[in-house]
Specification:
Helix 1 runs parallel beside helix 8, helix 2 crosses helix 7 and helix 14 packs across helix 15. The termini are far apart. Helix content is 57%, strand content 17%. The chain folds into 3 domains: 231 residues, no CATH class; 146 residues, Reverse transcriptase/Diguanylate cyclase domain (Alpha-Beta Plaits); 244 residues, EAL domain (TIM Barrel). It is elongated and about 130 Å long. The protein has 669 residues and is of the alpha/beta class. The strands form 6 sheets. Strands 16-17-19-20-21-22-23-24 form an 8-stranded mixed beta barrel, surrounded by 4 helices. Strands 10-11-9-14-15 form a 5-stranded mixed beta sheet, with helices on both faces. Strands 1-2-3 form a 3-stranded antiparallel beta sheet. Keywords: Membrane, Transmembrane, Transmembrane helix.
Length: 669
């Protein structure tokens, strides 16, 4: 090349293009991380990419100048040279910020390309003005406009290609094309501008500004900037691969892969074999450990559990922590028989004792298993199936494993449908209360009623309490439902009093949820006050598990209610986990013998248990009610053992209000 006495070294020209292309590709690699980041991390990736691209453009410009052999000595003003570098970096940052916005629009690419092309041009002319030589550069307007247009068009082309690879961090041909376009914008603008310029020789004025000598100092500066560019790019890649990636794809507590790592594993490595297994592992009653011993002990326990799971799986698959006490195991090459053996091995290992900071802990787990391709051919379907199987394990008693089947899926779909409808049932007045009499078998009179909740579903008819009550308990909906029931029962009982139909106490089953926030006393008092009902006409039934859970607080709340005059009964006595040593501390009026003992009362052992319960109640001055009475033989046995108050189908089934009124009339006589 030869223009106006300027001679170019073609190899250095090619080197300048290669430098610009390399810098652009390195910057675009960094920019690919932007869409996967947010906040400060996103700005850090943008800044890194802008610095690499800006310094590469600047280095290319001065390498291009080094490619020329001028017939006179050239020096450079350091301040202006540094200014051109800053302009280059700033324009790159602004262009990349605009072009990598989450909402891609054509006008953003246009503005981004214009900012980048304009920055390249401005950097070029500032860089040229930093040259101090015995000549002046005269630019031809038309060719300079052409050089700027080349920069704008090529920069826009490179920016426009962002949409093809902005989310992809690996190699992409579109990323390469974009880098070449940006390199063309830089070199095309530079050499078009320079080769069409005219040099006018003259003696330079006598001022002596601070100058730096070419070529050694300039080459040193370019080398340092290039090293900075490469170091920044390499450091960012290292940070991404070894620090940020680990932070993004691994759980900091257990160092197991997290949900993001799970997605990547299923995308790249899991599928491909003939069959595979996915395990959902959830610890049973882990919350109680956190609540009693603290979250620090809980975290240490989770680490121990993760280590045991990793040892169990070994090299056969991979273990992931999904959050809390939930783990997932993926075995890419596994039959259903091998999966069941593995699940049994996991349960055996996890239930062994843990020694953590002087605490000997025991924990069990529930496992749900799904198989590919039988239960799904993608991650989402397999996880859903395994989760459904896990719920089955939980519902069937915990410390078990279950393999997904279609019946489970139907059950889970119905459960989710009922949960959705249950949230609307109270507002739609779909609940009703039925009443079952309590009968004094010696006096032949009704001495009480038990209020029982029923749900009239608009599509499925009457839903069994055994099906919807656990859902209400789990979701917390049992609390507003019980509030409603208290008001309804107290109001109905008062109507019976006024009509002189009945004058007995009505009992309502209480959930453990009702004792959690300490407001049960206020709720009961409000219901009684609004209905105008005397407190001794209301009885609250609790189970042994409720009484023993946070016993001190529960006893305090029940004592306040007893002092108010409300009666308390202990339901299903003999089937729970209460200690006889604590029974006298629980403020109850009545023990209710569970129907499981009545149903098998012909057995000598059950008869002995019934006799002992009646004796305990008598010694503690408590009343006794026998549930589930259906035959005259059961009545005679209970009477012989000293129990007179009974409840069951023999005396009356649960009845709605309209039927119960007639029942009262018929049985009062």
């Amino acid at each position: 090349m030869d223009q106006m006495g300027i001679h170019y070294n073609i190899w250095i020209v090619l080197l300048s293009f290669a430098l610009a292309a390399t810098a652009a590709y390195s910057a675009l690699n960094l920019i690919s991380q932007v869409s996967h980041s947010m906040g400060r991390v996103r700005r850090l990736w943008l800044l890194s990419g802008a610095c690499v691209l800006g310094s590469g453009i600047w280095a290319m410009h001065f390498v291009g100048i080094l490619a020329s052999h001028l017939p006179f000595k050239v020096s450079y003003h350091p301040g202006t040279a540094v200014l051109s570098l800053l302009v280059s970096m700033f324009s790159c940052y602004a262009a990349l910020q605009i072009a990598t916005a989450s909402r891609q629009r054509m006008w953003r690419f246009l503005i981004g390309g214009a900012v980048l092309g304009g920055g390249i041009s401005l950097m070029h002319y500032i860089g040229m003005s930093s040259m101090v030589m015995e000549a002046k550069v005269h630019y031809e307007i038309k060719t300079q406009v052409l050089s700027v247009l080349i920069a704008l068009l090529a920069a826009y082309t490179g920016v426009f290609m962002f949409r093809r690879f902005k989310d992809y961090t690996g190699f992409s041909r579109w990323k390469l094309y974009s880098a070449l376009s940006i390199a063309l914008a830089v070199t095309g603008m530079h050499y078009t501008s320079l080769t069409t310029s005219h040099l006018q020789y003259e003696n330079w004025p006598g001022t002596n500004p601070v100058l730096m000598e070419a070529d050694v100092i300039l080459l040193t500066g370019i080398s340092l900037v290039t090293l900075f560019m490469l170091a920044l790019s390499g450091g960012a890649v290292f940070l991404d691969r070894h620090v940020l990636e680990r932070m993004a794809y691994h759980d900091p507590l257990t160092e197991l892969p997290n949900r993001h790592g799970l997605e990547r594993y299923f995308k790249d490595d899991f599928f491909g074999g003939n069959s595979g297994a996915v395990f959902f592992v959830d610890l049973d009653r882990f919350k109680s450990i956190n609540d009693t011993l603290g979250h620090d002990i809980g975290d240490l326990l989770l680490r121990e559990v993760s280590e045991r799971l990793t040892r169990c799986v070994g090299g056969k698959g991979k273990v992931f922590r999904l959050g809390g006490d939930e783990f997932l195991i993926a075995l890419p090459d596994c039959t259903i028989g091998a999966a069941e053996e593995e699940a049994q091995h996991i349960l055996q290992e996890l239930k062994k004792s843990y020694s953590i900071e002087g605490n000997e802990l025991y924990v069990t787990a529930s496992v749900g298993i799904s198989m590919t391709p039988a239960h799904g051919t993608d991650r989402s379907a397999l996880m859903k199936a395994a989760d459904t199987a896990l719920y089955t394990s939980k519902d069937s008693g915990k410390n078990k494993f279950s393999v997904f089947d279609l019946e489970m899926n139907r059950h889970q779909v119905r459960r989710m449908s009922l949960e959705k409808d249950l949230r609307k049932a109270l507002a739609r007045s779909e609940f009703m209360v039925v009443y079952q009499p309590k009968w004094d078998s010696l006096m032949n009179v009704t001495v009480g009623l038990e209020a029982l909740l029923r749900w009239r579903h608009p599509e499925h008819g009457i839903i069994s309490p055994g099906e919807f009550i656990p859902i209400a308990e789990e979701t917390g909906l049992i609390v507003p439902i019980t509030y409603w029931m208290l008001h309804d029962v107290c109001g109905q009982n008062m109507l019976w009093h006024k009509a002189k139909v009945a004058n007995v106490a009505v009992s309502i089953n209480m959930s453990a949820r009702m004792f959690e926030n300490g407001s049960l006393y206020d709720v009961v008092e409000e219901a009684l006050s609004r209905a105008g009902l005397e407190p001794h006409f209301l009885e609250l039934e609790i189970t042994e598990s409720i009484a023993m859970n946070n016993m001190e607080e529960t006893v305090a709340q029940l004592s306040k209610l007893r002092n108010l005059g409300v009666r308390v009964s202990l339901d299903d006595f003999g089937t729970g986990f209460s200690s006889l040593g604590n029974l006298d501390e629980i403020p109850v009026n009545t023990l209710k013998i569970d129907q499981v003992f009545i149903r098998k009362s012909k057995m000598h052992s059950k008869k002995a248990i019934i006799s002992n319960i009646i004796a305990i109640a008598s010694n503690l001055n408590m009343e006794v009610v026998a549930e589930g009475v259906e035959t005259t033989e059961q009545i005679e046995l209970l009477q012989s053992l000293g129990c007179r108050v009974m409840q069951g189908f023999y005396y009356g089934r649960p009845m709605p209000v309209n039927e119960l009124g007639q029942w009262f009339i018929e049985n009062t006589a």
